[in-house]
Amino acid sequence: MCTLEQRSNLFILTLTGNNDQHRLSPTLIAAILSALCRVKSVATSGSVLITNSQGKFFSNGLDLPWALAAGCRVKALSRLSQMVESLRLVVAELVSFPIPTISVVQGHAAAAGFVLALSHDYMLMREDRGVLYMSEIDLGGCLPDYFTVLFRAKIGSGLARRDILLRGQKVKGREAVEMGIVDGVWGCEQSLRVAAMELAERLGARKWDGEVYQKMRKGLYPELCVVVGAVTDGIQAKL
After folding, report:
1. N or C, which end of the chain is more exposed by having fewer CB within 10 Å?
2. Residue ranges per domain, the chain?
């Protein structure tokens, strides 16, 4: 499902499985939350988190096949709601995390997978294979409230938000840079991962105070903090 590796002050969270779409099932969401809590418990000044993945996908969104396997509409919607609320906790944790965070999108990041990547402080993307896509408009599903607030908080251009959310535009690397979504694109997986490590090392070298960093990030995104329930330090009471 996912692994957590520590290299000095850098923590690398990897969604695993070469042929997996890394759909955000209850099990995977719980594993991500557990990994984030472990990082937070041992992080020090100069720590940085990198989230990446194996294979073609960063994440293909919530585990809709698992929801549909419930057998009836009511049960399927209940399972979908469960995943939406569990992912809210992940976004809350990331927006209140005490260290810098970087997502590395080397493949497709769709719907909730896009949300997961966007919840980090920095996004790096592979130019030839990376794709960002919000599929809800095409699938006929409404966005959870915190999805919309996250996009308003993280993407400054109203036209970019319109094209992503109301047109279902599939955004590739260079377009994502032009739209102000990602910090840069790289031509192959190796160069992308090297760039992520170099950025993490530069950020870690600043040795920012974790409590100050957390409070300043929350100050940047007050509406997002409210809607995901991150208005106080951490989310331990909700886990």
Report:
1. C
2. 2-238
User: Please, are residues 1 and 15 in contact by the beta-carbon 8 Å criterion?
Assistant: yes
Provide the 3-class DSSP secondary structure of residue 117.
helix
CA distances (Å), origin 198, targets 6, 66, 87, 194: 15, 38, 29, 6
Judge whether 53 and 193 are in contact, CB under 8 Å. Answer: no
Estimate to the nearest angstrom the gap between the alpha carbon of 171 and the chain centroid: 16
Residues 79-121: pLDDT tens digits?
A: 999 999 999 999 999 999 999 999 999 999 999 999 999 999 9
Phi, psi of 101 (to 5 degrees): -130, 145
Which CATH topology does 2-238 take?
2-enoyl-CoA Hydratase; Chain A, domain 1 (3.90.226)
Burial label for 205, CB within 10 Å (0-12, 13-18, 19+), is exposed
User: 65: which 2 tokens?
Assistant: 């096949």
